[in-house]
Design goal:
The protein contains 4 helices and no strands. The chain is an all-alpha fold.
Length: 163
């Protein structure tokens, strides 16, 4: 049972963090390939970001559930499990913030700006707000990656100690 729990735990980490690390590469390739049509590239990347967020939310819930079970199954001590759960909870909170607050607000700005943010002038208030939210979104994703790495380190430390 311990092996199954650890395997599922690692798999959930791999899915979420792997997607988080790979996403900027996909976004860069999309924008490079569709260089003249940044609206189309942005639409594609926006859809991919929503998929990434739902993958993260599901993975995060799986991680929390497995870590809650870990002490009962003798995999980790309760304090270790709680230490790992804290950054994962923050990852879920940041992902939810981006998915349910930032992205809808960016979409409203895009529509208010005429449907395509790249055809408006930089001094347009909707464009300025969109760009501000875009930067915030990037920072949130960086935060999720950072917290994910902290969680992986904490799991690695837990593995080196006796349960």
């Amino acid at each position: 049972m311990k092996t199954l729990l650890r395997t599922l735990l690692y798999l959930a980490f791999i899915v979420w963090l792997g997607a988080e690390v790979f996403f900027p590469v996909v976004a860069a390739i999309t924008f490079t390939t569709l260089q003249p049509d940044t609206h189309a590239a942005g639409t594609i990347v926006g859809h991919l970001l929503r998929i990434l967020h739902y993958m993260g939310l599901v993975s995060g819930m799986v991680l929390l559930a497995l870590l809650a079970l870990a002490p009962a199954w003798g995999v980790y001590r309760p304090r270790i499990a709680l230490a790992v759960m804290a950054p994962i909870f923050l990852m879920i909170a940041l992902t939810s913030y981006s998915q349910f607050l930032i992205i809808p607000s960016m979409e409203r700005d895009r529509i208010a700006a005429g449907g395509a943010i790249d055809i408006t002038t930089p001094d347009n208030p909707y464009t300025a707000h969109f760009n501000k939210l875009h930067t915030r979104s990037e920072n949130v994703e960086i935060g999720v990656i950072f917290l994910g790495l902290i969680s992986v380190v904490l799991i690695a430390l837990a593995e080196t100690r006796k349960t």
